[in-house]
Amino acid sequence: MASDVGEGVGEKVGTAASAGVYPRELERAVVSRDGSYLRIRPIRPDDEPRLVDLYGRLSEHTAYQRFFTLMRRLPPSWFHFFANVDYRNRLPSSCRTGGRRAGSGACSWRMS
Is 13 exposed, middle or buried (0-12, 13-18, 19+ CB in 10 A)? Predict the structure, then answer.
């Protein structure tokens, strides 16, 4: 398996062998300073379509800042890679909010 997304994302990326046990204990419901309710949790394989949607809503500038290149669409294998993790070496998280400013976001930690 490639060490970084974008460098040879191959056939083994995101296979069942790389999927870890979902850490439900890391899920949190929090209230932000402005009173918005947020749900923060580790990313799950079923988040793959939401990641595709999220990327489609990024501005060109934001997409470039995140991936250091500008692509209209990311390869499907990248979204699969982002959503299928072992939760030990990589721990992507999702944050969703509702209300008037409904939205979502994602971030990732990688152990070295």
Answer: middle
Q: Enumerate domains of the chain plus CATH numbers.
A: 22-110 (3.40.630.30)
Would you call 50 helix, strand, or coil by DSSP? helix
For residue 80, the one-letter residue type is H
* pLDDT tens figures, 22-76: 999 999 999 989 888 888 999 999 999 988 988 888 899 988 998 888 888 889 9
Choose among 12, 107, 102: nearest CA to 51.
Answer: 107
Predicted structure pTM score = 0.69
Are 39 and 28 within 8 A, CB to CB? yes
Q: Give the whole-angstrom CA distance, residue 108 versus residue 94.
A: 9
